[in-house]
Fold these 4 entries.
Entry 1:
Amino acid sequence: MYHLSEAYAMATFICLLCGYLGALTFASIAVPRLVVKHLDKAAYAPLLSMHWRSVHKLAVIGGLAFTAVCALASGKTALPNAYALMLVSLSGLMSITFYVSLQTLPTLSESPDGKLKFSNIILVFTGILTGIVLIAALVYVLPGQFTFWPTAQ
């Protein structure tokens, strides 16, 4: 016997994770381009500095929330322990890269034009890429997750 509630919970988790990564990608790519295009340099530097700080905080908080959900659900899921550990590790790695990126974020005095350092961009890219790998791992197991359920006697 299998329960569809776990499949629905996993599908909801996947949709929320996709929305979260989509929002981070949009905030990282589209918003700065619009700000630079429509404002002068004196106006957009403090705005971009504040924008980057809020995007990084959102990334860290969201990553921690997804890590906590993965960790709490790993004990109650029918997935094998090794696979659940991989999901928790991926979401934890995503959180760590976003946190390190937040810690290396330059202040306005260090970056008067509001631009990020290359290392910060690489860390954000790594965090988003790790989130995409997490989505792929979840999507991979979703259709076949019923094979992990013990058969009814």
Note: Residues 4-38 form the longest helix (35 residues).
Entry 2:
Amino acid sequence: MNLPRVRLYNTFSRTKQDLEPVSDGMVRIYSCGPTVYRYVHVGNLRTFMLPDLLRRSLEYLGYQTEQVMNITDVGHLTDDSFDRGEDKMLVSARLEKKSPEEIAAYYADAFMEDIRKMNIRASDAYPRATEYVPRMIELIETLLEKRHAYEVDGTVYYDIASFPAYGSLSRNATEKLMAGTRGEPDPRKRHPGDFTLWKAAGSNRVQVWPSPWGPGFPGWHIECSAMSMAILGDRFDIHTGGADNVFPHHEAEIAQSEAVTGHRVVSLWMHGGLLMLSGARMAKSAGNFFRVTELEEQGFDPLAFRYLALQARYRSPLNFSTRGLGGADNALRQLRENVAEWSSQRGDEDVAAADDWDSRFRAAIADDLDLPSAMALVAELGRSPVAASTKAGLLESWDRVLGLDLGRSPAKRTLPPGAAELMAQREQARAARDFARSDQLRDALRSLGVEVSDQPLKK
């Protein structure tokens, strides 16, 4: 099959490399999904945009794709890096006075609605961790048989000393990992860096499964090894996640999967950059986050965040602000208005020009999903002398990748909540010639995505 060359950045090798699917023309992708104990925020949604953009780009270039995204509904501790704390699912269940199953169902439904608002296409499968516990137990038994794991009082640990490549993904030296960790190490571990595969259940544990080592529950890391290989096989093409998944989660996943199979399982690892808010990572644990529904309530189109995210390389950090989002919202509305206007102007198609522009777009997305360059092409096309109908046709085609819903009828512009009051106050300030106050209110309006222009004041 004669398909275009695609180069993607591999976190493991720290280089761009050619995509060479295991099966000709078919790219199989596993993506780390949400832990459904709380609502996802827009930082999470940026991470989930990565496999969506990857699939859209590959399909635009002629490849077929199969993508699996897991849903974690057990085993994710409040401090997974050091095997400490409570299961996040059970914490939420206790706080909300619901069962873990009710918590998982509610927040999984909310997740599906949020990705719909972001125009993130549904994955081909959403396996839940609780459905694959028997498969996890099988993998753990194999790791014990191959002496990559050991059991102490019903808890099974992975022995990182048994896997010399441990640390290769994150560039963490195994010797350093084994030397010690934050706080008091678990005395049952052979080495402080060993991680839990199966945890013995305490007397008050709600979610419990029987196992050869007694009642307990799986560790977070073994879940993805079990689900990815059960669905995609023991050799697949791409594994995606956020930059915060590199260590310990994906490092542990490599150690587990490759120790079981004896060979490389994932060809290429792709990680999305974090979303930053006021210089700090947006995170549920820090409480500094926005839901997409909150942005919507402030008057922003949810796809304005998608537009904003397309301005940065997927693996780079992205600074978030409502001012930046307001600018993206205005730009998106204007782009839709332009597409509607160009579509209404019938004319002869300039096939040669269209092919040239499209080849440039294809080159951008084939170069490690260079969406900022693709978006620069969108702007350049808008300013070009290309025929209006050709512009509209190209943008509607490119939107299969961008996912901005450019064919939507332009909505009547409405002011975000609070903007009308600020505008009235600003008019009063200008009338009183309080220009310092007027400038402050202009900045406040701009932060809501509202730009104002002034007429000279009457003398």
Note: The chain has a mean pLDDT of 90.
Entry 3:
Amino acid sequence: MVVINYEQVEESCNELHQLAKNMKELVDKINNTSKKLSSNESWNGMAANYYISKMDRLCKNFDEMFAEIENSILYMAKCSGGYQEIDKVVMNEICINLNIQSPNLSNSKIFF
């Protein structure tokens, strides 16, 4: 079992989002390079076709991977938000029953 706090979940989501964004920019560059090479009459033949097909395959498969990363980020954020709301409600009830002030839960631990 892994124990992390809500801030760490948010940091992980931000890191994954930045990674996905960087990957998207890189794939766009690869796609543009492939298009340039495809239209370049001075570079053709078996080697050119081989590398162009590899670049095209990478770009076509990337969309699925990008969607999976983005969906994972959304899922993590949704789960974290749900747990955070539950923690607030439970903590509020405990504090009301004990007649004490509710603590800040931003560093509370969650379990995955």
Note: The radius of gyration is 23 Å.
Entry 4:
Amino acid sequence: MSPELVEISAQPSYPVELLFPMDKHIDAASGVFMYPSVDDPSVPFTDDVVSLPDPNYTLQDPIPVTVGYEEGYYLVSDDRFLRYGTGATLAEAKEDYGYALLEYYDDLIELEECLAPHLAYDLQELRNTIIPQRP
């Protein structure tokens, strides 16, 4: 005897807000976005770094990062440049990430003449992403 097939539409559906704690953040330009809550950051989530800690540089576009929380600190990392930052708060971790990214950028510029191909590619990507501000 085979078990009865149950119609999928008859299965209960749960809104994502009940499955993952969410905070609503309102962006005037784009409307309402929902992000996983930093009140329960045990599950890594994605966010964007939109500014750098040094006012002499701005970002052309936001950099997508993964945010995790472990043993009292936040970890912000990216898959593009393989940099990370940590901090007691999410803002501190993003700031630390910004410093790590700028340090990587400065190191690559300093060594530009002898970079391996993958590092030369990173430098070009950083030049397309980080915009130095004119005084």
Note: The chain has a mean pLDDT of 80.
